[in-house]
Amino acid sequence: MTHGSSQDVRGRGDADDPALATVAPTAASAAAGTAAPALATAGDAVVVDEGSGRAGAVQPRRKVSWRARLARDRSLILMTMPAVLLLAVFAYIPIAGNVVAWQDYSPFLGIADSQWVGWYNFQRLFVNDAFWHAVGNTLLITAFQLVFFFPVPIVMALLLNSVMTPRVRTTIQSIVYLPHFFSWVIVVTVFQQLFGGAGFVAQRLADLGYDGFDLMTDPDTFLVLITMQSVWKDAGWGMIIFLAALSTVDPALYEAAVVDGANRWRRIWHVTLPALRPVIILLLILRLGDALTVGFEQLILQRGAVGVDASEVLDTFVYYQGVINGDWSFAAAAGLLKGVVSLVLVLGANKLAHLFGEAGVYKRA
Amino acid sequence: MTTKSPGIPPTRYRVGRRGFLGLMGLGAAAIGAPTLLAACGNGGGAVGSAGGGGSVSAGVLPNYLPIEYIAPDFPSVNGSTAGYSSIPGDLVKAFSAPPGSGGTFTAMTPLWGTIPPTEGNQYYDAVNGALGSTLRFQISDGNTYGDKLAAVLASADDVPDWVSIPTWNVPPRFTEAVEGLFEDLTPYLSGANVEKYKNLANIPTDVWKFCVFNDKLYALPFPGEVINNAIFYRRDVLEGLGITEQPTDAQGLADLAKELTSPGDQRWGCEDLWTAATMMFAVPEKWTQDDAGNLVHRIETEQYRAALEWQVELYASGAVHPDAVADKTEESKQRFESGESLIATDGVGGWHEALSRQLQSNPGYDQQAFAPIAADGGTPVLYKGSPANIFSFLKKNEDPARIEELLAVADFLAAPFGTEEYHLVNFGVEGVHYETDGDGLPVPTDLAATELQPTYTFLVDPPVVNTKVQYPGFVEDYCTWMADAAQYLADPLFYGMQISEPSRFAALDAPFPDLEKDIARGRKSMADMDEAVETWRTSGGDELRQFYQDILDAQ
């Protein structure tokens, strides 16, 4: 059954699967730097099981003609149309606007009248120290969060799954994913009130005779700080997908494992984790594709507190160069480079997943 | 980055979730409005020598014909803002008939407050009725106005007939937009042409000069005050602590802030005082000349370095509120008004706004401005503020009659204090938006709070006077403080000139606001500043100096 459940997810690799049709472009658009609604991704992932019944049909399908497949899947295709249309209008067509990266673009002259400058903006980009500094920061934050943030929802899901009382479970679940709905302004303010120089902790410490505690303005611990904020805000939300995957594990497997003499730890190792593996790999790939996206508001809100050196990442770099300095083309070049690198990362990670025998985000039909 | 709100709602600096742009605009505004404007170049340097250089040909400016309906109780001294302590019983009717001819126009304005309903709003109905033209407002949140503006201006079809543009929201490359989108008002207002519009002719020449882009008059002004910022302190709290002596030099101010600090009582000496430091040390807003007459940029001056070093010591002393150290500027007014921090810099317009928020719940609230302080205790130098804080532009129109109608409307809106027109625009309709109390002062009704928000005033406004009679003693405090401060005024180099730098210089200044913060907080040293200044010089600063030198030589 462990095997069966990974098959379920493999069904997602099927290009005709409506759920997948939405997941893949979402990933692509996220990679292109467009904010894709996270909700949609999560929702789609949960829907996956419905398609599992057809998973067995993968092999013979190749022989069916294109026309026949169209006729058969007509209603499914129709159902995906709204999503495809939305993506086309809000993601694919605007991609064409990236041509400004090869211009000296002015919004008042428009794309048609702005001067073409060839690869000039990219040349400037490659010799720009601030840009590489931003890239370095971005990768540092990604790497740190991959180790200290990514596993947190998995651990939380495992812990929560072991809580047997449904009422306690739903209560905990609601509490931990509530912060997801707070905006970053609120999250940063809450942290400021707690850990700032005039915050709760500093006040208590001052009462005890320790002065000068201020976590919010220390560039050296900024990495830890933003990871804490991210965990607090989004770990509970990230947990949902893992909980959904856990709920599909057949209880009979655990019973069988117990009969075989497996203790709690063994059951997690041999039953639970293998069930989660495809989901973990999928999310890891999506995360890698997002490696160059490490949060925008969170960082920009704390830019003044810790300084540019610690807080400048690719997205803020693009914002300041483009919107603030009006150097739109330069910013577009930086954004485009980011999109291309992200795409390569997703493709690479997906390939790697295939090598390890996992379905990954997508695979060829 | 300190809040700065010259004469208009400072709440615009209450940066919301998406208010970064406003905040950044501020950073630039702290350097001086021309920086922002200068940040908008013309791509290929296509601006003619007369255009980019900010020079204004003689025939372009409107004539100045001052009118005064009532003599102010606190007259202007050296250009300081005049004030009125009461509302006159009989108002002058400046327009015998509505100036408009029945046209309907769209207008886009910012608002730092709750956006009023535009349909069924008795205030708009009344003013539009008196105008004889209908203005339909598209009101946007002032904190994010710059973002909205950039989008609207980039799409010519969406540009309203009349657009208000705060000087700190002027988008990059704006000069390209001006010529393409907006009507050149020179033929309508230059020289004696303006005399048709008597209230517009009442606007001083310096203000008009600032409205000239590429040697053509494009904008209508919301005039500014000669002094835009002040160092405020909580007199009520300080007196409660037994402190009545005012600081007379920069060290004195820092010592006072330190003395007031008591974290155990949740009380800190001050907010970020960068603006105060630049005032005390007389840091030029952009350029100054050394003894040999060479141009020296602000970041190269001794004053700038001294101001930074002063900030470093201030921060190191622990007198700055920790949330201000964390750069939470959006709540700085809240901290100051609640007494968590006792000294703060703000735009002069922030003064009465604080009173309007606090006096009701805390009648003892007393905020005052320090008299100008010179860093070394000598004679202070204050650089004059921009002559206008907000511009408005008229969209290009084939039909001159439409433009003339809008100018007639603008003339109505520019009617000064003492006229029925001013009263209507600022206080609304009697019995609906205000009741007159025993002293003849207008008391706003509840409806005024929802309907009457500043909108028309952001299109065009008469020269600034202080008429905030509703706060006891405020007009006197304000006008006497400014009259005293105005004696130290000095014209900055290129004062009131609208200079458009080529766009390749746009990002030159960008690293400095961040660096100023880094240095103050001890994250970077003055050596880093030296390096940044050197980079600035080699990556275009010296070219920029030459650009300005040419303008100077041409004068």
Automatic annotation (TrEMBL), chain A:
Mode of membrane association: Multi-pass membrane protein
PROSITE patterns from the UniProt entry: ABC_TM1
Gene3D superfamilies: MetI-like (1.10.3720.10)
Subcellular location: Cell membrane
Membrane-spanning ranges: 76-95, 139-160, 181-202, 235-256, 328-347
Domain ABC transmembrane type-1: 135-349
Chief localisation class: membrane
Family: Belongs to the binding-protein-dependent transport system permease family.
Protein name in the entry: Carbohydrate ABC transporter membrane protein 1 (CUT1 family)
Annotated source species: Isoptericola halotolerans
From TrEMBL, chain B:
Assigned keywords, A-Z: Membrane, Transmembrane, Transmembrane helix
Record keyword Magnesium present: no
Coiled coil: none
Transmembrane segments annotated in the record for this chain: 20-39
Keyword Transmembrane helix attached: yes
Similarity remark: Belongs to the bacterial solute-binding protein 1 family.
The protein's name: Carbohydrate ABC transporter substrate-binding protein (CUT1 family)
